[in-house]
């Protein structure tokens, strides 16, 4: 029997988990996950293999039940039997492996699933044509899926997840196995879906995809280690950085800028000065004024951040 909704959960909230936990034969796959994904947000789950990302998606899709804790989609409880069918109809799921009917064509696969979801004939056929065209499969619509490459099967699976126009889209490694051009097509399509106001949960090992597509990311290793936008996480784990490139460099600049309140460190490499600062909007004008007053000439100033790979590795290695 499912747990009653927590008092904090409201029907208009999109996705929320409360101490969500899943164990398999004593092994903890997901532990105490507290997460809220807002309406229209693209949220990425990052983590190593076995971190619990796929298990989280399966629980949110009402395919498996939590061991303890709760999860809600639009206020519907994934553990309540009367809510589960409604949740499944609202969610489009791209699983780890395509799981298509190999002897059927791309069109027939999508027809089958469209009928299963009860999509009316005219709407279903128009939708299938639009999906196959957008994903560059229209010319292969009548070919058996068994002859498709891994990337083509992945695109058919993405179309299958969207054939019933779900409000929520759960994508498990959507660009896995795709060549660069196909991956670009999928990324662009995800951005279009985001523009339509869909809420998207993205599991990925591709940090470039996560940085390009996600409003926020969560780093998971059974438990949630960190959450925030890529830039917020970079600032949190590495601090804020200002890069000052100079045409002429007065002697003593690296030491002098350390006297500016809020400058935490200073390092000169060639004609580029790298500074850790508390607040760039406050420190940067003071830094530039100081360098000019010392006779220096500034070419440009920009905010520097560590890449998502550096951030991810620091979180994983440090346990958050």
Explain what the structure shows.
The chain is 37% helix and 28% strand. The chain has two domains: 15-228, 3-Layer(aba) Sandwich (Rossmann fold); 236-307, Alpha-Beta Plaits (2-Layer Sandwich). It is built from eleven helices and 14 strands. Residues 1-11 have low confidence and may be disordered. Helix 3 packs across helix 4 and helix 8 crosses helix 11. It has helices at residues 53-60, 81-90, 106-116, 121-134, 150-162, 180-195, 207-213, 230-238, 253-256, 280-293, 308-318, and strands spanning 15-24, 27-37, 42-46, 68-73, 76-77, 91-94, 168-172, 199-203, 216-221, 223-228, 240-248, 263-269, 272-277, 297-304. 36% of the residues are buried. The chain is an alpha/beta fold and 320 residues long. The strands form three sheets. The protein has a six-stranded mixed β-sheet, with helices on both faces. It has a four-stranded antiparallel β-sheet with strand order 2-1-4-5, with helices on one face. The chain has a four-stranded antiparallel β-sheet with strand order 12-13-11-14. The two termini are 34 Å apart. Strand 4 and strand 5 (76-77) form a beta hairpin.
Features:
elongated, four-stranded antiparallel beta sheet, 320 residues, 14 strands, 11 helices, Rossmann fold, Alpha-Beta Plaits, alpha/beta, six-stranded mixed beta sheet, disordered N terminus
